[in-house]
């Protein structure tokens, strides 16, 4: 397990904090340190790789391990490079600590443990004499935690329309050789279960305007906080109603959450602007646009006469449906059982890169070590035996002919 521990520790000690839309900078922000590590690792091993710039200083990394049997399918393994911030952690966020079979640190669970399992599996496949029954394309994507822009750039690589192509994508497109993957496995902490369906989300900012003045003469201004209060109550009411829609769905009901409220600059000033950030989780098959429009309509009804602007969404993704082929889900389940585990196909309330890939025509599942209960926590950790098991399962899925059955495995919530 030494290679797994050292790989995971290498990833955790390289901060890759997503600024989450804030105007912040510092040595812990953005994915560049992880990107450089991956490039060095693949170069040293002789594994073909390419970078894909998504934004200044933020690159996806792609690597390719070719199948050794003819007519093999391509499977995409995706793991995001970014983490949430390490503020308020009770362990050192970027000083990986191994204790009692766990590795602690920011991103250990979400999702550097899953990335480490994929990297070690790639190393083993690369040097093994076993046949490889699938070509593995590994993508390390940026900005999963806030905007999904990294995986959207990956999905662009198999676009055929000329006007959809970006010149800077050429090296990554060449590595993919113009081929769309037949399936994708997206790393997230699933406790070695296979997530075959999950929610999507739409997130945006709401700007509620007023008119500033001195608080000694508040009647001369227009306090933006007052209509904001009415808007918040409307959001709260709709959130309660949504919980009663489709309560028995495996993914849980649709949800609505008000995440941040920013307004006012001093107690002696009437505020002229309040900004809200809204998170609306959508069911598989539910339209993010229609879900957003319902929220906008409810806010407008509660605030007649108020001047309110809704920014375009900074994140928008559909839910992941389980209607696509389940062959890779079956392969993961069978490989897990061969190891003595009992993986199940399950549904999740959160969202992942998988829904973007599925929308781009690649049937996708979510799989990885660790529990979502540890993700983003103050003492984030992952069980190392699960990381080791995930690497073995991934290798097994490629070294063994992939199941071709079309019957859906049973899904539990």
Order of helices and strands: HHEEEEEHEHHEEEEHEEEHEEHEHEEHE
Tell me which CATH architecture of the largest domain applies here. Answer: 3-Layer(aba) Sandwich
- Uncertain spans: 403-409
Report the top-level CATH class of the largest domain. Answer: Alpha Beta
Fraction of helical residues: 25-40%
Features:
single chain, 413 residues, alpha/beta, Aminopeptidase, Alpha-Beta Plaits, 2 domains, nine-stranded mixed beta sheet, five-stranded antiparallel beta sheet, globular
Describe this entry's structure for a reader.
This protein is an alpha/beta fold and 413 residues long. It folds into 2 domains: 290 residues, 3-Layer(aba) Sandwich (Aminopeptidase), CATH 3.40.630; 118 residues, Alpha-Beta Plaits. It is 31% helix and 24% strand. The strands form 4 sheets. A 9-stranded mixed sheet has the order 1-2-6-3-7-17-8-16-19, with helices on both faces. Strands 9, 11, 13, 14 and 15 form a 5-stranded antiparallel sheet that branches. Strands 4-5-18 form a 3-stranded antiparallel sheet. Helix 1 crosses helix 3 and helix 6 packs across helix 7. The chain is globular and about 80 Å long. About 2% of the residues have low confidence.
